[in-house]
Amino acid sequence: MIHVETISSHTRTGTLEILWSDGRQQRLTHAFLRTCCQCSHCKSFHLQGKTGDVLPEQLRITEIRPVGMYGVQLIFSDGHDRGIYPWTYLRDLAQ
Ligand SMILES: [Zn+2]
Fold it and tell me: Half-sphere exposure (CA, 13 Å, Cβ side) for 84?
């Protein structure tokens, strides 16, 4: 099974880099990940047809918390901390 080898966050550039065990390297911006949040709040927000506010370019991930073998929880600099990102979900994200 494919798993994550390393996950590194670069605050200066606002990018998150994920290295998978099959050698694939994925680079996603913090702001993009914020828009991909799947918490109930963000989901209902999108269901209402809202595309979201324009995110500040300075938006950053401030903390990455492991969620068991399942994925990670990302904490953002705007205070949003409800987003759980399963590995399978992250794997399919493309920017
Ligand atoms: Zn959310």
Answer: 9
